[in-house]
Amino acid sequence: MRSDPVIIAGGGIGGMAMALTCHQLGVPARVYETVPELRPLGVGINLQPNAVRELYDLGLAHDLDAIGIQAKEWALVGRNGNDVWSEPRGLLAGYAWPQYSVHRGQLQMLLYREVLDRLGPDAVATGHRVVGYRTTNDGVVAEVESADGARSEHSGRLLIGADGLHSAVRAQMHPNEGDPIWGGAVMWRGTSPGVPVRSGASFVAVGGMRQRVVFYPISAPDPETGLSTINWITEITVDPAGGRSNSDWNKPVDIDVFLPHFADWDFGWLDVPAMVRAADTVWEYPMVDRDPVGTWVDGHTVLLGDAAHVMYPTGSNGASQAIVDARVLGAAFVEHGLTPDALSSYDAKLRDDMSTLIQRNRGAGPIGILGVVEDRCGGVFDDIDDVIPRAEIEDFMARYKQAAGFAIEHLNHAPPTIAAGARVAS
After folding, report:
1. What is the pLDDT, as a whole number, of residue 48?
2. pLDDT, tens digit, for every residue of 382-406?
3. How many helices (H) and strands (E) does the chain have?
4. b vs e for 285-308, b when ≥16 Cβ sit within 10 Å of the residue's Cβ?
5. d(CA 406, CA 293)
6. CA 336/CA 343 separation, integer angstroms
7. Distance in angstroms (rounded) separating the CA atoms of residues 79 and 89
8. Of 187, 367, 364, 205, whose CA–CA distance to 270 is shortest?
9. Rounded CA gap, 403 and 410, in Å?
10. If pLDDT is split at 50, 70 and 90, which confidence band does 139 have?
């Protein structure tokens, strides 16, 4: 096999999963990551069973328990604190793999350490950003800018744009796209110490479409205090007519900016103001996405993860899909080699489904059922069966799981994305 590597733009979760997949298949790879030093930044995310299956196949089964907890329940709660819907998750739901709630930064650092350990200490070039590319007869040349502004060119078999929401690779591939799209929703995110509620490992969304709180633990309780790290999100939707230029989630804000919207959200079992005040830092994030594009491929270059299909995080499947992307692309390498045909096969397999999911998540994804309840009773009720039939909710949830790729029977009986021992031929 030629020695020039697959070039991966971006060292996030998708980029690191891609590098580990390349190593598993015997493909040399190098990651270029913008930040000078990777640190465990961010807040909580959920890894759905379809992504956990892929991480297990990469040999990371035991590592996930060290950085997160296995989710047990997913619950939707109305504005007055009464249940709309709850269901088991992960192993308790019948999946062959768990669902994990983890700190995003801890997951990224786990993958980063594994990349350095398996591919070597030079596998990740931090402080370097892929800013452009050009296609050659048998590969691609990536233009890379270092932290001091110097530019250099690097040849590769393929270029994988896993460089996120503000992808330079996507911007060159689709130059007329413009800024990310903001629909009026603003989230404030943080983590606080707290006592886990319900199952002790429950994902809970409370409220409606225009105002809600989501929270779940991302660590086991401390043996001495009984407190877990609780990841929480408060969200309101405002008129987007005025526009919003900042789509960077890493923007610390004072809690007085948003806490008055939730001043009376104390249900006894959940005290939202107290939870928010217990956070060290809170980040503001205008919820944005991008319209689907007609292709993720340009010659020897392809998009992956948020660079391909950034979507609202209402379905808790952004990071999960980036991992799945990497594995599906790896399977295409096995079948077609490191060729444009492999990239086209990956694009054909995933792009239409992800385009549909982007649109579905604009409707709040699985949380959208809270909007139905809100429309029918204002979110205030004594018995949810008087508001919406259980069968209607079941159908709503089943259709989302199918669209997102983690319907139980389909996932449990699907063959491995990449067969054990598979390698890319010379």
Report:
1. 92
2. 999 999 999 999 888 888 777 766 7
3. 12, 20
4. bbbbbbebeeebbbbbbbbbbbbb
5. 23
6. 9
7. 23
8. 205
9. 11
10. very high
Quick check: 330 and 21 in contact, CB under 8 A? yes
Is residue 183 within 8 A of residue 214, CB to CB? The reply is: no
Asked if residues 71 and 201 have their Cβ atoms less than 8 Å apart, the reply is yes
Q: ∠115-415-305 over CA atoms, to 5°? A: 45
- Pairwise CA distance, residues 262 & 7, whole Å: 46
Alpha-carbon distance of 260 to 265, in angstroms, equals 10
Confidence of residue 245 (pLDDT cuts 50, 70, 90): very low
CA dist., res. 182 & res. 257, Å (int): 19
CA distance 291 to 355: 8
User: Lowest mean pLDDT: which of 132-141, 238-247, 362-371?
Assistant: 238-247
Q: Residue 184, class by beta-carbon neighbours within 10 Å (0-12 exposed, 13-18 middle, 19+ buried)?
A: middle
CA distance 338 to 139: 9
- pTM of the entire predicted model: 0.93
* pLDDT value for 289: 85
Candidates 326, 374, 376; CA nearest to 346 is: 326
Mean pLDDT for the chain overall? 92
Q: Please give the pLDDT value at position 58.
A: 98
Q: Report the share of the chain in percent with pLDDT over 90.
A: 77
Rounded to whole angstroms, how far apart are CA atoms 426 and 387? 61
Question: Is the CB of residue 379 less than 8 Å from the CB of residue 333?
Answer: no
